[in-house]
Each structure stands twice: as C-alpha cells, then as structure tokens.
Amino acid sequence: MIKSALLVALATAVVSTAALAVNEPKESYELKDGSTVYVFANGKMGMADKNGRVNAMKEGEVMELKDGRKLIMKDNELFLTNDFVHRDHKN
Fold first, then answer.
1. How many Å apart are CA 67 and CA 75, to the nearest integer?
2. What is the pTM of this model?
3. What CATH code is carried by the domain that includes residue 38?
4. Domain assignment of residue 67, yes or no
5. What's the pLDDT score for residue 12?
6. Domain count, the chain
7. Residue 8 counted as domain residue
8. Which is higher by pLDDT, 40 or 86?
9. Cα gap 7→5, rounded to integer Å
10. Does residue 70 come out as left (phi exceeding 0), alpha (psi in the -120 to 50 range) or beta?
11. Residue 40 lies in a domain
C-alpha cells in the first residue's frame, strides 16, 4: 500500500515537472532592436520586446539578430512566450 502511494506521488511529480518544462524555451536570441526571440522544445517561436511585451509576428517574417545573422519566424507562440516572460509576475 505504501509502495503504491509512493509510486503515484513520484509519477505525479514527474508529470508536473514535464509540464513545466514545456514552457521553458530551449534557446533564445537577441535581436538588433533589443527584442528577444524564444525557441521552444516544440520548435515554435515567440518574441518579446526589450520591455517584456510579447509581440505577435507573422510566420516567415525575417528578423535580424544582434550579430547580423537572420532568423525566420516559425509558428508564432504567443501563449507560451507570455507565460515564460511573465512567470515571475503572476499572483
């Protein structure tokens, strides 16, 4: 009985941790204008300006990185980006 309760608790912790990891970008890039582009594990991207406001972008839009390289927007992910950028500001 105790073993099964422990297994259930462990499984719940693993699922919770995995759910939180989805909201974490695996990469981020700084743009010339000070904005940041986040790339999530599912390959979708989102952008926040230098003030932390999440901006919608069109798929295929070309962005210039601080170092001059180009990046093309793929699947604008507003909700994940907003959750990540403002995670410390929630009640």
1. 23
2. 0.68
3. 2.40.10.300
4. yes
5. 61
6. 1
7. no
8. 40
9. 5
10. beta
11. yes
Tokens at 18, concatenated = 């995995």
Range of the domain at 48: 25-89
> What's the chain look like in SS3?
CHHHHHHHHHHHHHHHHHHHHHCCEEEEEEECCCCEEEEECCCCEEEECCCCCEECCCCCCEEEECCCCEEECCCECHHHHHHHHCHHHCC
For residue 21, give both structure tokens: 């990891």
Show contacts of 17-23: CB within 8 Å, 24+ apart.
22/80, 23/80, 23/83, 23/84, 23/87
**Contact at 8 Å (CB) between 22 and 80?**
yes
Residue type (1 letter), 84: F
Q: What is the pLDDT of residues 43-89, one digit of tens each?
A: 889 999 999 899 888 989 999 999 999 998 988 888 788 888 888 76
> What is the token pair recorded at 63?
């962005």
Placement of tokens 């743009």 in the chain: 31
